[in-house]
């Protein structure tokens, strides 16, 4: 049995962190579904920026530019067209799992990360435009994003919460989700609104690569992962969640993101085999997925009690790493990098629109 299939058997979903029109046209995504146990897909502006730069969207950009669409409207048209097709590919999985799996994700403009009301409006509009029940709208878990998550869930919009880094970030995101579900229960609405909480892993180790002793290299991400998984399992077992489940709700799932290994000296599947855990999702780019399929191994699953998380995190604290402060910095830096990627994407669309006229 391939490692990808074995992880799936253990209760972890494998999602692809990539999408291009070419992958849809040539059957690559269907191939991953059929042979790699892939059961969902995530996207972001950087992914679309690279794909648009390849020229595969030139005809579509030329046609939409002639309609007088703004660069942002043009991008969302392209993205929604692709994600509708991807959502349809994953729909059989979505139906078979009664909505647990088979999701795709579309991100609101990163320029809205600190604007609650604009994020709520954008999430509602994008989900309605996409018109696919197995499509998440990605909203960052910034302080301003949390009330937007609650409002979106309360309004029945499925949400992929992004830009989470720590157990505290996760608890805040889960709390925002549960607030929205509780409002639906109170209002007599269906409380089963899909959601995942996406925590970014590899950036931890990149941030401290030159600041910790060699014996702690490439261990912070996994240590934080243990802490987050403990918080997740504690919440799953909580009275609050159990009461909502009795009302027909389903708990938000934990998703491991940013799982491509950045250190060339580390295992190329570090954040896959190192984060194997039931009731979670791991979304990974093509090369990481291919590597895990080819030579990955599934060892010990994450312990629900966090295992040696506290001892590991203490070693980092003793080495001078303030994990809470670093989590805040990573979230802030992540939001800025998302804006940079978005601006690069819009600039590329503008340039190609001009050159294709």
Structure overview:
This protein is of the alpha/beta class and 357 residues long. It has helices at residues 3-9, 21-25, 28-35, 45-53, 58-65, 71-96, 116-130, 145-154, 167-186, 202-208, 220-236, 239-246, 270-273, 286-295, 309-318, 323-356; strands spanning 12-17, 38-42, 104-107, 135-140, 159-164, 195-200, 253-257, 280-284. It contains 16 helices and eight strands. The chain has an eight-stranded parallel β-sheet with strand order 2-1-8-7-6-5-4-3. It is globular. The relative contact order is 0.15. The model has no long low-confidence stretch (mean pLDDT 95).
Strand content: 5-15%
Largest sheet: 8 strands, parallel
* SSE run: HEHHEHHHEHEHEHEHHHEHEHHH
Proportion of helical residues: 55-70%
The total beta strand count reads 8
Low-pLDDT ranges: none
Q: How widely separated are the two ends?
A: 52 Å
Rg on CA atoms, Å: 20 Å
Shape: globular
- State the helix count: 16
Structural class: alpha/beta
Strand order within the widest sheet?
Answer: 2-1-8-7-6-5-4-3
| Average of pLDDT | 95
């Amino acid at each position: 049995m391939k490692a990808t299939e074995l992880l799936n058997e253990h209760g972890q979903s494998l999602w692809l962190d990539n999408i291009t029109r070419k992958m849809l046209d040539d059957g690559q995504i269907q191939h991953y579904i059929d042979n790699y146990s892939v059961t969902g897909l995530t996207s972001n502006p950087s992914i679309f920026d690279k794909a648009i730069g390849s020229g595969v969207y030139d005809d579509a950009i030329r046609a939409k530019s002639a309609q007088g669409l703004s660069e942002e409207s043009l991008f969302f048209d392209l993205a929604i067209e692709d994600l509708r097709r991807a959502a349809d590919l994953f729909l059989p999985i979505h139906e078979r799992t009664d909505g647990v799996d088979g999701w795709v994700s579309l991100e609101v403009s990163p320029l809205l990360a600190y604007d609650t009301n604009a994020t709520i409006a954008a999430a509602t509009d994008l989900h309605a435009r996409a018109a696919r029940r197995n499509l998440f709208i990605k909203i960052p878990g910034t302080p301003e994003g949390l009330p937007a998550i609650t409002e979106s869930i309360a309004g029945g919009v499925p949400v992929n919460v992004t830009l989470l880094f720590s157990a505290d970030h996760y608890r805040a995101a889960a709390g925002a989700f549960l607030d929205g579900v509780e409002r639906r229960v109170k209002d007599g609405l269906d409380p089963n609104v899909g959601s995942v909480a996406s925590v970014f892993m590899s950036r931890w180790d990149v941030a401290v690569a030159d600041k910790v002793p060699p014996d702690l290299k490439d261990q912070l991400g996994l240590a934080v992962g243990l802490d987050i998984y403990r918080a997740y399992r504690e919440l799953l077992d909580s009275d609050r969640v159990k009461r909502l489940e009795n009302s027909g709700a389903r708990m938000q799932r934990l998703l491991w993101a940013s799982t491509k290994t950045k250190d060339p000296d580390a295992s190329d599947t570090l954040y896959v085999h190192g984060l194997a855990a039931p009731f979670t999702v791991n979304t990974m780019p093509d090369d990481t997925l291919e590597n895990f399929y080819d030579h990955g191994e599934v060892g010990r699953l994450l312990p629900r009690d966090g295992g040696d998380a506290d001892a590991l995190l203490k070693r980092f604290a003793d080495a001078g790493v303030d994990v809470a402060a670093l989590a805040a910095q990573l979230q802030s830096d992540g939001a800025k990098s998302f804006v940079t990627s978005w601006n690069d994407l819009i600039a590329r669309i503008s340039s190609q629109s001009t050159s294709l006229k």
